[in-house]
Design goal:
Blueprint lengths: L1 E3 L1 H5 L7 E4 L3 H6 L6 E2 L14 E4 L6 H10 L4 E4 L2 H13 L5 H13 L3 H14 L8 E5 L4 H16 L5 E8 L4 H14 L3 E5 L2 H5 L6 H19 L4 E3 L4 H14 L9 E3 L7 E3 L7 H10 L25 H15 L2 H9 L10 E4 L2 E4 L1 H4 L1
Helix pairs in contact: 4-8, 11-13
């Protein structure tokens, strides 16, 4: 099988080659290599045989069997090493050298207040007000994973620090638990592009969970949060801020009901059980994912989908459609097609529980039933 790097691909005459992008249509629409056509499932009946074919996936791994199949059919086919991720890394590096960098950073910041004022900024500030997420003198570790949610959260926190009513401190905390080199470079370059000063530390979490077969993503998430709390406390922070948004919240509600037989939610604010006087806040709590994606695409930004080095094999992280959370996303998508009110009603339902109509509930180990008062 023949391989080619992005750098080598850039030097070819684009009119004399065919580039196919086999990623999902949604990923393709967010950005692709110039002139690439989208064939998500490696369909080959529309590919001309009179030109060499270059195959692009996210990491350069899923494209390998497609290239091998094309070769068996008589195509002159090449695998693009590193895939889209490698292209993003190269493109970002070039963007940082641009004389227009400062202007672009300012335009991205301005878009939050102007273009997305109603759908992002106002919902962000409303959540902070309703759930009392910020206080004078706070020192908050904004946790950067490298995806669209945490990067937008960082920019929003910078903006409210500049325009807010009282002073507080921010630390933009980014852990490297063993990222792929391309992912790690993309995270750092995106931070430079957005004007986010990272405070970086390392851990060995990926190595620890590498051999775990059952729920590795759950264990990884728990360990990551523990490391973030610990590092934030060392830096003198009293809060950590995570990028969970509106969709994460309603997905959690539905997952609890449908798969665990309980009604519970993802709280916008909670106290740490293991780190004294530390809190976790979720300032994107009322911001919808579709609007985060719209902000990303409007500004032509490319973030990693998940920085986990096992992403391409892991459904929970977005590498497939088998996880319960992915199923909830599909269910909510159908709800939106039925009525735009349904998702808002799910969100409001856990703010408006009528205990007089609840069969049973518990707080910690203490259980209650409607029969307690009925008798």
């Amino acid at each position: 099988m023949k391989n080619i790097t992005i750098e080598e691909l850039n030097r070819l005459d684009q009119d004399k080659i065919t580039i196919i992008d086999i990623r999902k249509p949604e990923e393709y629409r967010c950005g692709t290599y110039k002139n690439a056509v989208n064939l998500p499932y490696g369909e080959t009946d529309k590919i001309p045989k009179d030109k060499p074919v270059y195959v692009l996936c996210h990491t350069g791994n899923n494209s390998i069997p497609v290239v091998e199949d094309l070769e068996r059919q008589g195509f002159e086919a090449y695998n693009i090493e590193g895939g889209w991720r490698s292209y993003v890394r190269l493109h970002l590096a070039e963007s940082l050298k641009s004389e227009e960098l400062a202007k672009r950073t300012a335009d991205i910041e301005r878009s939050i207040i102007k273009k997305f004022r109603k759908k992002i900024w106002c919902r962000f500030t409303k959540a902070i007000q309703i759930y009392d997420l910020l206080a004078p003198g706070d020192k908050i570790a904004v946790c950067i994973s490298g995806g669209k949610d945490s990067m937008l959260l960082a920019k929003l926190m910078q903006e409210i620090q500049k325009h807010g009513k009282f002073p507080f401190e921010l630390v933009f905390l980014c852990m490297n638990p063993g990222y792929n080199a391309d992912n790690w470079q993309i995270i750092q370059d995106n931070a430079k592009l957005l004007g986010i000063p990272l405070t970086v530390f390392k851990s060995e979490i990926f190595d620890t969970v590498a051999e775990i077969d059952k729920n590795p993503c759950y264990l990884c998430a728990r360990m990551r949060r523990g490391y973030l709390y610990s590092e934030a406390k060392k830096l003198g922070c009293n809060k950590i801020a995570l990028g969970h948004h509106f969709d994460d919240m309603i997905e959690t509600v539905l997952m609890g009901m449908l798969y665990s037989g309980k009604v519970e939610t993802m709280l916008p604010r909670l106290k740490s059980q293991n780190f004294e006087e530390m809190e976790l806040i979720r300032p994107l709590y009322m911001v919808k994912e579709e609007n985060i994606k719209a902000w990303r695409d409007y500004n032509k930004l490319s973030f990693i989908q998940c920085a986990c080095r096992f992403t391409e094999h892991c459904a929970t992280c977005g590498g497939g459609s088998g996880s319960k959370r992915e199923q909830m996303k599909e269910l909510i998508k159908k709800f939106r097609e039925e009525s735009p009110l349904i998702e808002e009603n799910i969100f409001q339902s856990v703010h408006n529980i009528n205990l007089a109509t609840v069969i049973g509930w518990h707080k910690g180990e203490e259980k209650h039933s409607f029969l307690d008062e009925f008798k």
